[in-house]
């Protein structure tokens, strides 16, 4: 059998290092076993307070609330974090994240032309940090004042009937003209029934 010298040397070095550490702890009158347990507990607490851990806990709390989120919306929220935030902040302690880091992630989305996504991600991240502050896991919300740093997204406004009494006749005539241009006339013919009072529907049915 071949002897793996590298592995043996690494193991011997690790044992020697641990022995020195234990000797140092004993010299300081510290129990090495208790020290290891305390170190493991601190590491576990750090993992609990990472951004990803807190974000997933916030998400599960929102999902558990009755009539809070629909399943498809809940899936979109966690998926957006997994795609755009977790790769950079998943292992970071939430109380160590600074505003400039959050802004950098949002501006990266804007640089890719995803302005609307950046706004939505900001809303989610802001809620996660608010949740952490509420649980006393962080002293401040690093995203609180970042909305003004993002590009404004213009909302699209679609045409609608402002005055039904005035615009109903014009709308019906427009649909009547469009009906002859469309290959599928049934939905177009039925739509005016949604905006007509019952007596008008009866008249249309007779015609």
Structural key phrases:
single chain, 207 residues, mainly alpha, disordered C terminus
Polypeptide structure, described:
The N and C termini lie far apart (99 Å). With 207 residues, this protein is an all-alpha fold.
Low-pLDDT sequence parts: 199-207
Number of helical segments with 4 or more residues: 10
The oligomeric status of these chains comes to: single chain
Q: Characterize the overall form.
A: elongated
Report mean pLDDT, rounded to a whole number: 76
Helix-residue proportion: 55-70%
Number of strands: 0
**Estimated share of beta-strand residues:** under 5%
Spatial gap, N to C terminus: 99 Å
Q: Please provide the ordered H/E string of secondary-structure elements.
A: HHHHHHHHHH
Rg result: 31 Å
> Largest sheet, if any?
none
Structure class: mainly alpha
């Amino acid at each position: 059998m071949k002897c793996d010298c590298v592995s043996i040397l690494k193991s011997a070095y690790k044992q020697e290092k641990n022995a020195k550490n234990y000797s140092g702890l004993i010299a300081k009158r510290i129990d090495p076993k208790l020290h290891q347990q305390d170190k493991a507990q601190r590491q576990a607490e750090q993992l609990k307070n990472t951004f990803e851990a807190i974000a997933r806990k916030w998400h599960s709390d929102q999902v558990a609330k009755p009539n809070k989120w629909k399943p498809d919306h809940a899936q979109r929220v966690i998926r957006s974090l997994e795609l755009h935030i977790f790769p950079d902040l998943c292992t970071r302690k939430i109380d160590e994240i600074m505003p400039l880091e959050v802004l950098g992630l949002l501006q990266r989305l804007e640089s890719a032309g995803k302005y609307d996504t950046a706004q939505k991600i900001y809303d989610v991240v802001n809620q996660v940090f608010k949740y952490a502050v509420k649980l006393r896991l962080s002293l401040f919300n690093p995203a609180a004042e970042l909305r003004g740093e993002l590009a404004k997204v213009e909302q699209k406004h679609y045409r609608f009937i402002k005055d039904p009494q005035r615009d109903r006749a014009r709308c019906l005539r427009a649909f009547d003209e469009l009906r002859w241009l469309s290959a599928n006339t049934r939905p177009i013919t039925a739509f005016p029934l949604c905006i007509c009072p019952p007596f008008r529907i009866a008249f249309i049915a007779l015609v």
